[in-house]
Specification:
This protein is an alpha+beta fold. It is built from 4 helices and 8 strands; from the N terminus they run H-H-H-H-E-E-E-E-E-E-E-E. The strands form 2 sheets. It has a 5-stranded antiparallel β-sheet with strand order 4-3-6-7-8, with no helix packed on it. A 3-stranded antiparallel β-sheet has the order 1-2-5, with no helix packed on it.
């Protein structure tokens, strides 16, 4: 809510008067028109007058208190409307927002590049399909993606040793899942040794390091981790 930090009603008079003064002096600087600034000035003056009458013992009555409450409601409605316009004006700086009594824009926190590779384990081997599960290696979790991670890129290789060059691996695709089926060609010999590796990436498609390759054998065989 606009002027949300104002807890004491008397301070609202001062804050609103400051808002009115600044936007009246240079309305276009804040993305407003002179007519809009004038309109706000009217409700600001009405509220200040009604507030003064409501707190003065000589004029304080149920009628003046009710009039003050109505004027305050009108003021807040106008303030919300004009605050939205000001906040949507990209040329208005955070320091200008503060000068008006508004909350500065909150910049989104940058999404970090993944710093660790995923944990990767083979869940099962069925024919030419190897089911793997990725997890958050940094936290020791066997399931789930780390904070800020959107998905993973998965790679495979057929051979006795895992290549050091990622260009020698077969790209299997990107996935947002942590359980993945890797389909090998049915032309591969039964019992062939295969390798799988992966890396995390964030929402900006910035990738982290590859995890240690994991090997298994198609249609049975032991599972091992590369040294």
């Amino acid at each position: 809510m606009v002027f949300a930090a104002v807890a004491v009603e008397g301070d609202l008079v001062t804050t609103s008067a400051n808002f009115a003064s600044l936007i009246t002096a240079t309305p276009t600087v804040f993305g407003l028109t002179a007519a809009q600034a004038t309109a706000y000035g009217v409700v600001n003056t009405a509220y200040a007058t009604a507030y003064a009458a409501a707190i003065d013992p000589s004029t304080r009555t149920p009628v003046t208190v009710s009039a003050k409450n109505t004027a305050r409601k009108n003021l807040r409605n106008e303030a919300k409307l004009f605050a939205k316009i000001v906040e949507a004006t990209l040329t208005v700086t955070d320091s200008q927002l503060l000068s008006l009594g508004l909350t500065p824009r909150t910049a989104p926190a940058p999404v970090p590049v993944p710093s660790d590779g995923p944990s990767l384990r083979v869940v099962s081997v069925s024919g030419f399909i190897v089911k793997i599960r990725l997890g958050d290696a940094a936290s020791g979790s066997k399931r789930g993606k780390p904070p800020g991670v959107s998905g993973a890129a998965v790679f495979s290789h057929v051979g006795e040793t895992a290549p050091l060059d990622i260009g020698a691996w077969q790209f299997e695709g990107n996935t947002g899942r942590v359980t993945v089926d890797v389909q090998f060609p049915n032309t591969i010999a039964a019992g062939a040794k295969v390798w799988i590796t992966s890396f995390w990436f964030n929402g900006r498609k910035q990738s982290g390091p590859l995890c240690a390759p994991v090997s298994t054998n198609l249609q049975g065989g032991s599972v091992s981790m590369a040294a």
